[in-house]
Amino acid sequence: MTNTTYTLPSPAKLNLFLHVNGRRSDGYHELQTLFQFLDYSDTISLTLTDNNNVTLTTPIEGVAQADNLIVKAAKLLEPLKSNQLGVEIAINKVLPMGGGLGGGSSNAATVLLALNELWQLNLPLEKLAELGLSLGADVPIFVRGFAAFAEGVGEQLVPANPTEHWYVVSKPDVHIATQEVFQSDDLPRNTEKISAKALNTDHRQNDCEVVVTKHYPEVAKLLATLLEYAPSRMTGTGACIFTTCASEQEARDIQAKLPTGITSFVAKGVNQSPTHVALETLRKKAG
Fold it and tell me: Are residues 122 and 218 in the same domain?
């Protein structure tokens, strides 16, 4: 089994809307959101070893190994294996950190999904998602792998089928901490709940925009610029903004107009996670 390598995409997600419905007694917030994946991903390679160790061969600058969600995810599964297999993990990181695209959560979920197979744990997705929730509220959506309407802290998922638009995703040179946004006195916390049956994205908003655009003028300025071209909204707690386009060409035309200093990419929304698609391809090859 050693020297087996899985190389998998670890995709971004968008919050097509994000409503804050209230604050719970434990300090967490009640949310409603619509998750969709993007066909734009980090790439993670996992190679089995027989030394029983978990090693990240590509440390991320400024993030201690013990704090890295990739390592935490692997360590979470370690006690559940009945063999002496270890793993070496490498990541090619292209998703911006602090952008609201869920990169760290996606990385953790990709490791959980891959090691579940490489270490022959055979855990059901429901169990993996439950374990992943301890790493972050967004991990379960990446583990489950389908676009979804989410409630609770983001872990209660109902499959959804939003339109798979083309997007320009843009980010000014700022890093926004999720905790900072949710602790802000400026955050609206009383948006009325909607039902999954009444789901649409036409008139929804991201409640976190109120906080971020007030405290980060770079985000406010970029959002105002993008709204002149096409419908635009912040994803998650920012700083990334996604602009909804009718075609790839429109997306690239808007991207070409972005101000200097703005990081951006063009991607298509997809309702099935690229990680799951890649794993299924590997299974077919193995079978």
Answer: no
